[in-house]
Write a structure and sequence with these properties.
- The chain has 377 residues and is of the alpha/beta class.
- It is 36% helix and 13% strand.
- It has a five-stranded mixed sheet with strand order 9-7-11-12-13, with helices on both faces.
- Helix 7 packs parallel to helix 14.
Length: 377
Amino acid sequence: MSQKLITILCFSMILALGTSEFIFGSQQSVKMISSKPASVQNADIRISDCLGREIVLNKPAETFIGLFPSACELLKILNKENGIIAHDSYTTDAIFFPGINKLPTINSQGSGNALDYEKIMTLNPDLLIIMKNPAFDPADAIAKLHPTIPVAVLETDNVYTIGENIKKLGKLVGRETQAKRFAVFNDGIRDKILERVKKVDESLKPTFFFRIAGWTREQLCTMTDRSMMVKTQMVDAGGRNVSANLAGVFIQEFDHEWLLTRNYDNLIWMVWEKLYPGYLGYDVKDSTHAARLAAEISNMDVFAGSRAVKNSKVFLFDARLSTSPRGIILMAYMAKWFHPERFEDMDPRALHQQYLDDFLHVDIDLKKQGVLYYPQL
């Protein structure tokens, strides 16, 4: 299979998973288009989005369309989700966004850049927020909508940049205090992890093999350290990736004999709800399905002889943790998993609960429901 075709396939998968540049790490060049409307030259609200474009508003935005789930999750963090007037085909989580499926949809699943611009113009939101994503080039949306409908492109799931990006969005929607609170939460957890991990000698960090979701249950895919998700949520949390030096970013095909020669300490498995419905998620009541999956994985020939399986170090996590503002929660889980003795005082589930209570305001008690990873830490 050609590298070009693999790239196209993995970009398609990133949309299906709701993922972003955060997973792949590569950044496509985007045509820079001026975003300063002449009618707001004296406006009070100005920010520079992650493409370096200046966004200018006369007053805080009140109605929104968010492109990709994490953009809408940022609005929920800022307590502005009631202003969402339409959604894309990937933003369908009724737990986080009750009634979302009753709103108009501005694209069809798998349509890529094919947004319904006529519908967007008719809806006329105060702001269109696009998650920066290498699988989606925002230049067409910017050219066709801006400045009539202001378009802001933001990084919404990178633990290193999300703090600054949510503060920019907070300014645009009049929620600067809430934005700063989340930035402090995210950056505080990240910095605590980094400070402790940097004291660990590289040779003493545990190794891992990461299996990212493929198109089927049987397909084994992995990622190198050029993936921003792997780098920030796993490597920076104190692990060493045995796939780090493979060619490329997303490895859709690799020689299983190669993996058999790598004796890694941990096997990390991303669980995609489309392939494993009811295994992980906020509506899952217990770990029965997850435990069965971990046992099935451990019995696979390619993994059965590994040190990870022999020592019961198989870790499963819900894909939605890694491709949203909850990336910091997954980073905390990984740090605790890799270095339990160094993070004895860190309770990832308590941090997760704090995020749900303080920022998403959803009625979920993780002690009673919700299985987002397995095993429990």
